[in-house]
From TrEMBL:
Residues 86-211 form the Fructose-1-6-bisphosphatase class 1 C-terminal domain. Belongs to the FBPase class 1 family. Its main location: cytoplasm. It comes from the Eukaryota. Residues 1-76 form the Fructose-1-6-bisphosphatase class I N-terminal domain. InterPro entries: FBPase_C_dom, FBPase_class-1, FBPase_N, FBPtase, Fructose_bisphosphatase_AS. The keyword Hydrolase applies. GO terms for cellular component: cytosol. It catalyses: beta-D-fructose 1,6-bisphosphate + H2O = beta-D-fructose 6-phosphate + phosphate. Keywords: Carbohydrate metabolism, Cytoplasm, Hydrolase, Magnesium, Metal-binding. GO terms for molecular function: fructose 1,6-bisphosphate 1-phosphatase activity; metal ion binding. The keyword Chloroplast does not apply. This is Fructose-1,6-bisphosphatase, cytosolic.
């Protein structure tokens, strides 16, 4: 109703079950490292398709729908600025009372060092901007949602693969007592959730360093 830009996220696996029978849920309950294609289509002022073929064709490609021809036209390769790009942080600060200390510290660091706050609330829009301009997108676990809110299979995995192929980093932050790579999460159910921290190395690594410092302080 509010007409904000939204999108469709997808990924493709090679099936492991017999092709002579119907596919099973086991074909997709696998880590994100098994994905062969990932992408999203964003519907806004323009309709854009962003896709990666992973190791088969490294990198991320961006296409825009040309309504005159009814076809998607190649726009550019998408590669994140190795230096981190613009100083932008994107998160729902309405959840801040439930965040853990490293996330709180990082967001305060952003505010103290002149970062701009940008948050649409549509994952496709927020990640798309992060890929183009730099910065970081966060939807961490918190006291209310200890496994995060976003779904592993159809939000976390595809966007993590795209982010990594564009030169960024995609981490779970703290998930079940460990900090790890989103693509290495092992889903047990179709609708499993995981925390999301993704973007340029400069900012994601800052968050990961804060988690490491927290671990050291407990020793």
């Amino acid at each position: 109703d509010c007409n904000v830009s939204v999108g469709s996220i997808f990924s493709v696996y090679r099936r492991t079950s017999s092709t002579s029978e119907a596919a099973t849920v086991k074909d997709i309950l696998r880590p994100g490292t098994d994905i062969v294609v990932a992408g999203y289509c964003m519907y806004g002022a323009a309709t854009e398709l962003v896709v990666t073929f992973g190791q088969a064709l490294p990198g991320v490609q961006r296409f825009a729908l040309d309504p005159a021809f009814g076809e998607f036209v190649f726009v550019s390769d998408m590669a994140m600025d190795p230096g981190g790009g613009k100083k932008i942080f994107s998160c729902n600060e309405g959840n801040s009372l439930s965040w853990d200390q490293p996330i709180l510290q990082f967001v305060e660091h952003c505010k103290d060092t002149g970062y701009a706050a940008r948050y649409v609330g549509s994952m496709v829009s927020d990640v798309h901007r992060t890929l183009l301009y730099g910065g970081i997108y966060l939807y961490p676990a918190d006291k209310k949602s200890t496994k995060g809110k976003l779904r592993v299979l159809y939000e976390g995995f595809p966007m993590a693969m795209i982010t990594e192929q564009a030169g960024g980093v995609a981490s779970t932050g703290l998930l079940l007592g460990k900090v790890g790579r989103i693509l290495e999460v092992m889903p047990e159910n179709i609708h499993d959730r995981c925390p999301i921290i993704m973007g340029g190395e400069r900012d994601v690594n800052k968050v990961l360093d804060l988690y490491k410092s927290l671990d050291q302080s407990k020793l």
